[in-house]
Amino acid sequence: MKLKNERNEEILDWTVSEAPFAASEAVEIVEAAEPFETAARPLRPTLKFKPHISPTAALTLIGVSLAVLLGVAGYTAWQNFTLRQTLIPLVQAEDEARLSGDTNKLGEFIDEEVSDWQFDQMFSSQTYPAALAWPVSEVGTVQTVKRLGSDLVQVDVARPYANQPSYGTPQQEAAYSFIQPQFYRWQNETWKRTRPPETYFGERQRLAGGRIEWVFPAVDGDLIDTVRPNVERILNEACGWWACPAEFGLTVTFITRTAISSWYTNPPHPAESLVLSFYQNDGGVVYSANTLILPSPHSVGLPANAKAQQLFERNLTLRILANTLHRLNIMRGARRNVFWMALAARLATRFEFENARYRVLTAPEPVFTPEELWNLRVYRNPGQFSPELRDAQILLNRLLLRLPPEAEQQLFATLPAAQNQVDWLVKALNISREEAEAHWQAVLTPVQVMPLTGMPDKYALYCLNTTGLSLWDGTSNPPYAALPDNVASGVPMSWSPDGQRLLMRMGYFSEQVGVVDFAARRVLWLPYLNGWPHAEWLTNTHLAYTLPSLLESSYMMPGAGQLMVLDTAHPNQAPVEIAEVNYFTTAPDSAQLAVVGQPPGTFEDYVGVLSAEDYEIRWLTSGYTPVWLAEGRQIIYTVSQPQLQLNLLEVQTGLTRTLISPETLAPLLPSPMPLVQSLNLLTVEGDDVYFAAYTSPTLTRNRAPDTLIGRMNLSSGEAQRLYYAKESWVNFYGFFEDQRYLLITAQSYTDNQSSFLIVEAATGRIARTLEGYIHWYGANFPNAHHPLLMDIQGRLFSLREPFGDLEPYTSAVATQGCGEMVLNPALNGP
User: Fold this and answer.
1) 140 is in which domain, residue-wise?
2) Angle CA(600)–CA(606)–CA(612) in degrees, nearest 5?
3) Are 444 and 367 in contact (CB under 8 A)?
4) Which end of the chain is more exposed for a tag (fewer CB within 10 A), N or C?
5) Rounded to whole angstroms, how far apart are CA atoms 124 and 128?
6) Rounded CA gap, 294 and 288, in Å?
7) Beta strands 212-217; 250-255: pairing state
């Protein structure tokens, strides 16, 4: 029997057995059409008779009644205990399936009446109940179990969350706890996860609070009442700085649908405005003309501790401020100006929850001029305009260092009426046009950045929200910052051969690339790169990198690229520029480079050879992703037409032959042969070519490919399957010293389990499995042919032999919260 309550009343806790009522015990609850009639009040007192009961009989009756009541209470307690013990392992199994990404297993726990869309929403929402909170890989803890009917129960589940993700870094410590109400219906002799009943959320409430109108379901009332006074106060303060019109207001609506409320991108950079970060990156939130639509906390997770309560209030405040910026930036005279956005965000740093470093950032060097930034218009979500916002921030910070404190508010107030960037300073500062132009010229003067140390160290790391770009000696000492606070600290990429210079990128904050020269105590900023560059050190000081040219468009569409060669020892010398090159790789003797580009008059990629002496290119054949063989006389490259395959190119003659094609792969793959999505060369060891083929056995979206790792002998032409994994992401790390064993990781789509695998190269046999180590950035083959592995506590271990013991490389946890480790090759690895 299903019992429906169409009215928005509180649902009573009923005392029933674990299973629904049996058919013979079915009870239909109905409401009387009219109230029962009651007897009229008597006109005169009625006689009352007092029956005689002996004391013994009375005591007996009381005892029997108490026994019955205690028995019922005990039975009810036992039933509740049994129900709780039944649901706890069910919730744990459900969470284990969710954490492993096994959607097929998750489907076994779901009510038949739940649609696919509701299924996705249900489990996506419990992954991220709040922005700036990332799930910890632990199953939830059942807090309470409450019966809502004969076949429906509510289970409140608490889950831990950290203040930063653990991608490629040790598991982060849980800082927040959120409780998600989950509902289960008795179906097919078991409990199945189902949608919340409509009566759970209650009637929609509407409450006016100054500039904000709050709309929320009744169940959220207590939480909204707790946080709204402070949120309204902060908005009023912000509107004072941002000059909101008197009539400005917005509606904040909490919807009862189980909606996703996640932070889809990487965490904000420590020097980035949180208001702008929310404006650009906040997922699952609808910013409309005057309404901010958010999911009900009772659908995605309620704060369960003080830190979670503070985070909820902080996120709500940031979303309201971001929505306000969105509204104000298209009103009146702001004209979607990027300086207006950057200056408004700078004003918001007066709030304690903002990043204070936003006000002090003065490097890297801006790419755009003040005039280019002034003429830019942000017409929609400015996620595409991060470099421009970064440059506007840096120029404003440099400018305001030269001006008195009151100039900040004057600049903001006068911007809407200004005609250009010079007129803006004239009006705001009451100065001449010549003086205004001098200010802009001064802020374009390069800022000299001095590394905090003149000595490189054994490792370079990126430590999120702590020291940024960091150095580490590999001992129990913690990593230490490499750059001062006024620099948007970067992520390490590669060391020069002598270990004195480090190539870095700015990471999440921008795509700017620079070289930290420890020997000269300076930072060199490379020209703007639209995306992470491919860069290689040609010598200790000469760096080669590709630079896409940018079309004249605010969307910065990449055009034909060029290869740049910069002498970092003489940064005042202009770099060598080689046109029409998008990719390159250096030959073993460094005398020539294999390049990929589009020769004049062509519209497809070609592979060519460039001389490192005169920088002349000899184009050879169509293709891409070239890899040199050890002697430097042959190149293996990829072609996609008429079919995907790997070819061998003789550099001297230009002759080519097919190495690996679909015909080669067919005997190595299951039948019928799946579609080959990509074919990658992994490495060449002697006469053997190791490759990976990624195939698609299904058109299901977001599933991992099947992965084949194979080997081909160049002399015999024979191909062999070494390893095959269904629906798995596979990473290849390298060979051990004798080249008999290779190290890979395989992360399964179905159970999300990832392990290091040591595979015998001759047979493809999995010789050893290593669990509990981080695979994204943990594995590294330094100078010798043995890897470093990092465990989830952040400790490093060296594995010198395929079957040897893992030797501790650090005596204590030293890299907590750090990732992207790059070993300095000149300082002798472990």
Assistant:
1) 61-195
2) 85
3) no
4) N
5) 7
6) 12
7) parallel
Report the greatest alpha carbon distance in the chain: 126
Residue 113 placed within a domain: yes
Cis peptide before 364 (omega within 30 of 0): yes
φ, ψ (nearest 5 deg) of residue 425 = -70, -35
pLDDT tens, residue by residue, 121-177? 566 555 677 788 888 878 899 999 999 988 999 999 999 998 877 655 555 677 899
Domain count, the chain: 1
Place of tokens 């019955």: 68
Tokens of 543: 């760096």
DSSP string, 36-68: PP-PPPPSSPPP-------HHHHHHHHHHHHHH
Contact predicate 113/188, CB 8 Å? no
Rounded to the nearest 5°, which phi and psi values hold at 26? -60, 135
d(CA 114, CA 778): 40
Q: Smallest Cα–Cα separation from 298: which of 329, 258, 342, 356? A: 258
With a CB cutoff of 8 Å and minimum separation 6, the contacts of 661 are 643, 644, 645, 646
- What is the number of other CB atoms lying within 10 angstroms of the CB of residue 602? 12
The structure tokens listed for 563 are: 């290869």
Strand partners, 515: 503, 524
How many beta carbons lie within 10 A of that of residue 37, not counting itself? 6
CATH number at residue 185: 3.10.450
User: Considering only CA atoms, which of 427, 438, 420, 329 is closest in space to residue 371?
Assistant: 420
**Interatomic CA distance for residues 252 and 233, integer angstroms:** 15
- The number of beta carbons lying within 10 Å of the beta carbon of residue 127 is 17
| Burial class (CB within 10 angstroms; exposed 0-12, middle 13-18, buried 19+) of 804 | exposed
What does the DSSP 8-state code read for residue 740? S
Predicted TM-score (pTM) of this structure: 0.76
* pLDDT tens digits, one per residue of 712-761: 999 999 999 999 888 888 888 888 877 889 898 887 765 556 788 999 98
Q: For position 556, what pLDDT does the model report? A: 42
CA distance 182 to 179: 9
